[in-house]
Fold this sequence. Notes:
The complex is a heterotrimer. By secondary structure, chain A is an alpha+beta fold.
Amino acid sequence: MSPAPIQSDVAIIGGGLMGCSAAFFLRQRGLSVTLLETDKVGRQASGTNFGNVRRQGRPIFQLPLANRASAIWRQANELLGSDVEYLPGGHMRITFKDRPENVGVMEDYAAKAREEGLDLEILNGNALRGRFPWLGPDVLAGSYSPLDGHANPRLASPAFARAAERLGARIIEDTKIVHASKSGEDFELVADDSRRFCAPILLVTAGAWAGSICAQFGEPVPLTPRAPTMTVTEPVPYAIAPSVGVMTPDEVETVYFRQVARGNLVLGGSIRAPSFPDEYRAYVMPENTLTQFQHIRRLAPGLAPLSIIRVWSGIEGYTDDSLPVMGASAKVPGLFYAFGFSGSGFQIGPGVGETMAELIATGATDIPLAPYAVSRF
Amino acid sequence: MSGRFQRLAEASRATVAFTVDGGTVAGLEGDTLMVAMLTASHALRDSEFGDGRRSGFCLMGACQDCWVWTVDGERLRACTTVVAPGLSISTHQPEATWPNQS
Amino acid sequence: MAEPVLNPTTSDEPRVIIVGAGPAGVRAAEALVAAGLRPLLIDESRRDGGQIYRRQPEGFTRSYEALYSSEATRARAVHETFERLRPQIDYWPETLLWNVSEGCAWTHCNGEARATPYSALIVCAGATDRLLPIKGWNLAGCYSMGGAQIALKAQACAIGQQVVFLGTGPLLYLVAAQYVKAGANVAAVLDTSPFSGRIRALPKLLALPDLLWAGAKLTLDLMRAGIPVLTGVTPKEIHGSTDGGVTGITVQAGSKSRHFACDAVGMGWHLRPETQIADLTRCEFTFDDVTRQWLAKTDAVGRATTPGVYLAGDGARVLGARGAEVTGELAALAALVDLGHTTDEGRRRALLAQKAKYRRFAEGLAKAFPWPHCLAARVPDEAIVCRCECVTAGTLRASVTETGAVETNRAKAFSRVGMGRCQGRYCGNAAAEIIAATRGQSISSAGRLRGQAPVKPIAIATVKVSS
């Protein structure tokens, strides 16, 4: 006879940054929480992404959520009792000279962002290089966000999970949920080893794996699993404060870098590779590492002599419109979603967790969620 | 000779002059950069994380603990690089001041 | 069935690529050439020979006997085979295989990266020293045992004025004896293995009586030269200063603490296979209880679990240089069979019989000179485990006890152990022991550090060129 199911107020499927921070904030609000993770918390998209804590460049309607997250990042170490290496060194978004039309787009974006409380400074040509001398001659203009920054993805989700656990959440790793259904008041979740978990509220934060779960509730969402191209260099003396990225419609040019306090530069971007959620594996394509180099050299030629010492990737779930699915199910009462962050979830992650906890605990939130409705698919 | 490495044989090769941190050093033809440097001094570089000077470890290109810099900022793995006349080597990281090399 | 024709002139035609020009790679190339193929041999070094038969630079004058002692004849044979093959193969020296993806070998040479498709990839990547972290082993003047040997073999140098050799295994005695013979000042030879193990291992070591005798003679030579040779020691600390480097070493020998003044320490506990390329080709791995290491899975002839990938030499399993010649040829024969060639079955059986003998001898060595895993598990908290990132044993243990790392990749994510330039080559074995001991679980449960590209660092300046 199988043991009695584990019962809680809220069950969460998926231990990435969204799930772990939701577990933390749900406990703060006094709800009992069981978080179920197939592998180890924060090991895929949440643990392998670039680590940008960047508000600028997000859709204007997302800025209230980003601002909420930003406030959490600023106090993360105290909140979590552990260092997530958050470095508020600013964020710089640049455009290359062959895309002069981007300057107007940046100015327009800055005007709208200001109304949402995000101050951006548009810097042109030599003014930009005067302040950031490592930027290359190919850089035409930049939009500087002094209050953004970056943090360590390897540490953030596990830190939220441990903090949630200290507040009484059950964090259960190595547990793959193979069946999810609702009977009566409760959702029933069954693991591949037949363990069962029951809760009147279910939050799905399963990233690239969420598709099959929402399909079981009649709300299929097409997700494309992709793998970011990530790289780290040897350590060099710490001198570059902001996280820097290229604004361009061309994926191959979309590169970015940041320097961690120990000195290594983390490089990201250029073409993403396919990834394999069923095998739990993502691979960096060597070709993409080399195109990343090419555009990093345009961005900051002084980086060229640095050696890279490691590349990595992870599994990210992309929706067709690159916006997440976030909010309540349109069909099943008690069911909530927060997945499909399409490679842009790290900064807003803690804000997502707090917002979902608020929504679940109070039934409402001031954060605009309409653009993320599951019903759009 | 006041270096860390001691030559035991093959010492009658032609000398190769190069500089390390501005001072002239005489290696021998066929020396690796590591041997040319360590027969004249005791270390190659600083550990990045404050535990002192480093002098390489594996001599076979595996441990990556013998990287030095040319004055132009290029990296050389001292154990797999052959010393060449006129090389100008720094045992300290050039990025301390992040020159804009554009 | 028609033999597939590999056209050497069109480089985008998939072809057989051999990685590593040591004894395994050279014998693999020889077998492929004999079958009418023109393999591409890629090697990181300037010259052929690998580490064990590494050739001294042009213009050096020492004899084969001086360089390779009892293995001089074999070294010469491997070098001569390479010279003979040279016009019949494509040879890319000073070329790093930095990644493998979708049937292409990605190489790096002189700042240029290129992709070369392969029909078979024979990986003869060799081995590096297995290290036990000792407090102070990060000081300038500490070298791996293999490094100490290369200083002498390839450059005619000793690593210091007064050298202590510490570790266990045949290389400990071989390198110390070579140093003495070359006129270096050896202060002591310190073996962590008790002498009794050698007696127990005799039945297996008798698989290769001439090597057993050569090994025993090394110890006698050292003792005759008046070098202190201590067995069963427990290393305590390598002393010195952050600026000046090593000044001495203390070990526990029986009930006594022994101190030896020195300015250099050569250290090593057998070898560990270089498995990064196998990992990048997505081969499956298996834990080997005899050596307490993870090895890429192969069948008897060296086929890995990934189709088209073959492993040979010490990179597959450490069987020594003689074993590498055998497994190199075996892997080439396996690749030939898979490419539709007919091979000599009798030759294959004879090679397998030789391999079994080398395997038995290697098991004897592992027994005679055991990896002191209990010492690894007890490395003091303040000692640095990961030299690249300066991660101490205490920090590593905290990643287990405080942040819940259950295996090495998780411990790496939390503590940075194995995250540096060498990618865990020199700390990975000991780190796994520390993690396993801290958790009170078996070493195999601590897993292994996954290999990640690039196999060695490459510069951001690297540009892609077409083949």
